[in-house]
Structures are given as C-alpha cells and as structure tokens.
Amino acid sequence: MTQPTFRALADPTRRDILQMLATGDMTIAQITDRFDMTRAAVKKHLTVLSDGGLITTEVRGRERINRLDPAGFAPVRDWLTFFDRFWDDRLTALTDAIEKDQP
Amino acid sequence: MTQPTFRALADPTRRDILQMLATGDMTIAQITDRFDMTRAAVKKHLTVLSDGGLITTEVRGRERINRLDPAGFAPVRDWLTFFDRFWDDRLTALTDAIEKDQP
DNA sequence: TAGATAGGATACCGATTGGTATCACGTCAA
DNA sequence: TTGACGTGATACCAATCGGTATCCTATCTA
C-alpha cells in the first residue's frame, strides 16, 4: 500500500491540495476554484490521492466532500522511521567507539 | 528543493536503492549486481536520487562511491511535520471542547 | 603499453502522466 | 417537471519516465 502513497505525493499540485484540505473539507468545485485547472484535472488528482489513502470522500446529495485521512500518511512516516532508526544506531555505535577509545 | 526529493521517492526501485545504501556505501556496479537492470538504468536512478539530495557521491579513482545523505530526508520530514502539528491542534481543540462540556 | 575495468553520455522506445474537451447522469430547486 | 448544478467517464494530446543499446572516456594493472 506504500507505492500508491508515495506516487500520490510526487506531484506538487496534489501536495497543495492536501495542504488546502488541512484547512477544511472541500468539494471538487471548491478545490477547482483555487487552481488554474479544469475540474476534470482536479478530479484526477483526487482519485490518485484517494488511491494513496490520503483522502476519503463522503457523498452528500450531489456533492462529494473530500476529507484528509491522517491514517494515509502512515506508510511515509513508517518508511522514514526505518532510516531514523538506522541513523540512531550508527550514532550510538560511533559514540560507543569513542567511549572505548577514552576509558 | 522539496519537489526533487518527493519525485525521487516516488519510484519503488529508488526507495530500494536507498535501503540498500543504508547497509553500506556502494558503487554503481555493486548496486547493479543486485537488480535485474542495466547499469545505465541504475545510473539514471542515482542521478534522480542525487538531484533530490538523498545521496552524495565520492569519486575514488575510477570508482564512484554512492552514500546516503541524511540531510536530504529533511524536506519530507518537515512536510509531514506540518500535518502532524495540524492534527495535534485539532486534537487539543477537541479535548478542550470536551472539558468545557464537562466542568 | 595494452587490455580490462568502472563509469559517463546519448539516442531511442513504449508506457505512464498531467492536462483538456466533451458528453452523460443524478440531484436539487423553482 | 424542467432547468441548473455538481460530478463521473472517456477519448485524446504532448510531455515525461523507466529502461535498453551503444559508444566514449578515464583509470587501474599485468
């Protein structure tokens, strides 16, 4: 499930959409108003974001409310954590070595 | 500088290369050995990773040592932090509201 | 010095991507 | 009921992407 997420974040427009949704849920038309783009283009981006699990949609009448999904960010966070742990280990190994050098 | 970074992370092969480099610095030939891919293809991926600031290269004789660059991950981490802060605020606002409801 | 080794550069190919234009469908309101 | 409104869906286009093949340069070594 991590590939669709990273793929979704690769486009600057999609990252902008996510930041906009952070300020509040929005319909497609509302998002389109803030971009120099067709509604169809925005819709495509929203589909990619949805595939990546980063947003969810709630159908209300003829409208579709797009909402940020905090859980969708987990894959990225987890992936970063892998490297964080790796670097932490490297750092402790380094300080350990230094301590041994100066007993 | 954040767009090249996200772009670099969008490809699964490139993320694999990063994980491989976490176990130790490697030359292009060494990386190519572990993939079913041409050296030229790997080289392209390394260029994208370098553009994203995720790796650095040290020329040693006729070899090029590719090394992970921890600093390159900062843009992604910072970007995630934005949403973390946002959700934290939302959560505290919610708990505050609940506390007011039950004095 | 001659070959082998490690890598750079470029042209090319099929597939994917971001975008538009267009038409079709359900839903709301007068 | 009849439009207007909010979306979905599809066909199409230029540009980018991941990958290969090929040729070239620099460096090490026998």
Layout of helices and strands, plus pairs?
2 copies of one chain form a homodimer.
Chain A: H1 2-9, H2 12-22, H3 28-33, H4 39-51, E1 55-60, E2 63-68, H5 74-101
Antiparallel strand pairs in A: 1-2
Helix pairs in contact in A: 1-4
Chain A binds a DNA duplex (30 and 30 nucleotides) through residues 11, 13, 27-29, 37-41, 43-45, 61-64.
Structure, explained:
Chain A has 103 residues and is mostly helical. Chain A has one domain: Orthogonal Bundle (Arc Repressor Mutant, subunit A). In chain A, 64% of the residues lie in helices and 12% in strands. The first copy, chain A, contains 5 helices and 2 strands. The first copy, chain A, has helices at 2-9, 12-22, 28-33, 39-51, 74-101, and strands spanning 55-60, 63-68. Chain A has a two-stranded antiparallel ribbon. In chain A, strand 1 and strand 2 form a beta hairpin. Chain A is elongated and about 70 Å long. The mean pLDDT of chain A is 92. Chains A and B meet through helix 1, helix 2 and helix 5 of A and helix 1, helix 2 and helix 5 of B. Chain A binds a DNA duplex (30 and 30 nucleotides) through helix 4.
Brief summary:
Two copies of one chain form a homodimer. Chain A is mainly alpha-helical.
Largest sheet of chain A: 2 strands, antiparallel
Count of separate DSSP helical elements of chain A:
5
Mean pLDDT reading of chain A = 92
Total of domains of chain A: 1
Number of E strands of chain A: 2
**Largest interface, per-chain counts?**
A-B, 21 and 21 residues
Point out poorly predicted stretches of chain A.
none
> What letter string, H or E per element, gives the SSE order of chain A?
HHHHEEH
Q: What is the correct CATH architecture of chain A?
A: Orthogonal Bundle
Oligomeric state of the chains in view: homodimer
CATH class of chain A, please?
A: Mainly Alpha
CATH topology of chain A: Arc Repressor Mutant, subunit A
Strand content of chain A: 5-15%
